Structure prediction request, 132 residues.
Amino acid sequence: MTLIEWRSEFETGVTDVDHEHRELVELINELHDQLGNDAPPETISEFLGEVFARISAHFALEESIMRKHNYDQYTEHKTDHENLLDEIRDIMDDFDTGKYAAYDEALAAAVHDWFVDHFKNKDARLHRMLGV
Prediction:
């Protein structure tokens, strides 16, 4: 089952960023599949860790591009990245402390919402401003 369908609105026009966006969507969908297939908690915890690590690396790439282009909303965008990483840490902590069941719609919704909202609101503006 797919949690996030790829949409053209997720594309920024920056090849490396778009490639990573697609990989992140695939990874999150794989996590969602594991949740739906009653994967052991250790597997889900490892997936969440992988999502966190890959998104951290992706944000570093985006931030280097923004600095290179003197992006006018760099500080706000970076702050959003930091807030999103905090939210992922909270999701990971909540999962590890048993707040979520092995499969929980609230967990899926939390992952979906922060990811899609960031694409639509922050990355879309970055794309427009870079003119790519």
The CA atoms of residues 84 and 90 lie 10 Å apart. The chain is about 75% helix and 0% strand.
